Amino acid sequence: MTTPHRITVVIGNTGERSRTKVLAQAIADGLSAALPVTVQTVEIWKLAPQIGPALTPQGLPDEAAAALRAIASADLLVAVTPVYKGSYTGLFKHLFDLVPPDALVGRPVLLAANGGSDRHALVVDHQLRPLFGFFRALTVPSAVYAAEADFDGYTLNSTALQARIDEAVQQAQALLAARAPAQDVLREAA
């Protein structure tokens, strides 16, 4: 029997109901259909009161500490953020400021973002890729960007967007197949 891949989906949404969450779920569903996986979701809005005042990961409340462990121990990380003022959300960045610099070395990361229009599509390459480049992660070549026109309310309605998701999922699958299981950097450091 194949051991399921541990996937952590980090959603930079600022509220419970968001298109970012819908996009993240579509990617997680694509991965679940393609691979044996266990999926853990980290939602920024839930962690905001815990991570907002934190300057270091030491002493974080249990839920925030568990989120950092989920990020550090995932075989594949899916990072999805809404676009605000041409970049990812501040709390999204702050969460990753709390992740140890070596925690994601060689880790496959599927990048996705959504914004009001196609004008923001380059946020993935100009903002997210450099962030995960700092961590020396292996970002999936095809990123996913969704504009407001790709949704009908809170439902994906774009076949082109679904094709981008499928392509990114296939590439993530190939990166996972070529890599050993993740080590839990946070646990090893303790």
From TrEMBL:
Keywords: Flavoprotein, FMN, Oxidoreductase. The keyword Ribonucleoprotein does not apply. InterPro entries: Flavoprotein-like_sf (IPR029039), FMN_Rdtase-like_dom (IPR005025), FMN_Rdtase_MsuE-like (IPR019912), NAD(P)H-dep_FMN_reductase (IPR051814). Residues 6-148 form the NADPH-dependent FMN reductase-like domain. Transmembrane segments: none annotated. Belongs to the SsuE family. This is FMN reductase. The gene is msuE.
